[in-house]
Amino acid sequence: MTARFVKWGVIMKKITSRTNPRLKYARTLHRSRQRKKEGKFLVEGVRLLEEAVESENSIETIFFTKRLLTKARGQNLVKECRRRGSECLLVPEGVLTSLADTDSPQGIIGIAPIPLWERNDLLTGPGLLLLVDRVRDPGNLGTMLRTAEAAGSAGAFLSVGTVDPYNAKALRASMGSIFRFPLQLDCNLPALVAELKKIGYRTLAADADGEVTYWEADFSSPGALIVGNEAWGVARELLDLADARVKIPLSPGVESLNAALAAGILLYEGVRRRFIAENYQG
Amino acid sequence: MTARFVKWGVIMKKITSRTNPRLKYARTLHRSRQRKKEGKFLVEGVRLLEEAVESENSIETIFFTKRLLTKARGQNLVKECRRRGSECLLVPEGVLTSLADTDSPQGIIGIAPIPLWERNDLLTGPGLLLLVDRVRDPGNLGTMLRTAEAAGSAGAFLSVGTVDPYNAKALRASMGSIFRFPLQLDCNLPALVAELKKIGYRTLAADADGEVTYWEADFSSPGALIVGNEAWGVARELLDLADARVKIPLSPGVESLNAALAAGILLYEGVRRRFIAENYQG
After folding, report:
1. Closest residue on chain A to B250 (Cα)
2. How are beta strands B202-206 and B244-247 bridged, if at all?
3. B182-212: b or e for each residue (b if 16 or more CB lie within 10 Å)?
4. Which has the higher per-residue pLDDT, B103 or A132?
5. pLDDT over 80 (residue B8)
6. CATH for B2-113, among 1.10.10.60, 3.40.50.150, 3.30.1330.30, 3.30.390.30?
7. What is the pTM of this model?
8. Contact at 8 Å (CB) between A163 and A141?
9. Are the Cβ atoms of B149 and A253 closer than 8 angstroms?
10. Which of A26, B61, B162, B226 could covalently link to B131 via disulfide, CB atoms 3.0 to 4.6 Å apart?
């Protein structure tokens, strides 16, 4: 059943049945394949939806609970979505929970279009491009994207075999970067690295057995950083193509760093080098 | 019921009841308060237990399944635990799952004593000491400990209000560092910072509003790094006590970095500076 009611002078709708077609559609977006097919994804929680609104993402639908409206922040978010033309559907707590990824959802979930970026959107700016090779953990991927944006990277190319960045866990870890930070999915990284080299990019691969410690590596701009899978690192083919394989030194007894953390250390070495190049040289 | 049987020439026991007292005891160790009272914690999975064995932790008891023994790595682990005097209890899959934190446990869970460190164990070595102020996310804490060990830190002091590092998620994120890396729990950090300053430590606090960008800060040794809560950062009192408040620059639009990632960037700046000090100066 869909009931209509008026709030803040606008018509809203209320869903009470768990088998409502909009809800059923939303639930299909928990699957990566369906997200790709539809070009849509689920955005859960106040903070992420606020980031979506701020980034001018045209959120298609929001499902929210009465409880959300007891807080000014929740009310403002619903008003803002309504003003921008989102379909606003009030649902009972249980229905929202049935759609949520987290155990204690914050009372709002939206359906948003997957942002579309042109390849050229990524080939600008001074920061290191991020090339992600088969990273499997969504938290790691989200953290990498958040950090790359913070480090001034122009965007990330994600390989075939990298986890879907529109996965709920990846979204949470990205802390909203997903709405602003240009991405290209399902990339053939060896072909990309070859092309980047042709147009003058210097490519560095993160590699525990790398030949040069990162602080002694050449970070000249424009550059790209390749980071690899949590267990296997960067693929052999990419290591061979890269201009340099850089390592982060580890104390004896420690086998590796967390993949997102290693990416962050290298991305920020790039930030530090640009600062030095801009302020002390030339 | 506890049945005895002989395998590899040694007596082992088999538990079939979920209400067996050893199992009931083990289950109580899911609670932080109980871990503290007993000085014991649960170690789940092959990898973490291997790290425990390598670090000479005297694992008291292991619960394992038949399935584990189908793999050479699992068999070797059980043999090694037996050789070192652990009580080895074969349990049905369902019983192991009832004790596990993860949804698909790897067939083995141990009870290990919480390592005890002296305060002085932490006041050695050239790396930055890590002072953790009220970090709430166990994954972040575990990653911080793993990274601090990798960066040559001598140990970490955890404030009152920091999540328990013997929590299952923190243990997984620590990747075994928990068995090697000296810790002091429930610390009064303001008192500690005052003492460290007296004995010549330079204390840096990670602070988004810090007065100096980290690559321009003084990292002279011996030093300590204070990192704070995911949402609120380092407590005001500690910021005021620190010798310097250092910031990591962020691109416009990005509010913050992941707490463990920020800690890692600063810890590795310390590594880089020590390398420079040792190789290019003096």
Report:
1. A150
2. parallel
3. bbbbebebeebbeebeeeebbbbbbbbebee
4. A132
5. no
6. 3.30.1330.30
7. 0.94
8. yes
9. yes
10. B226
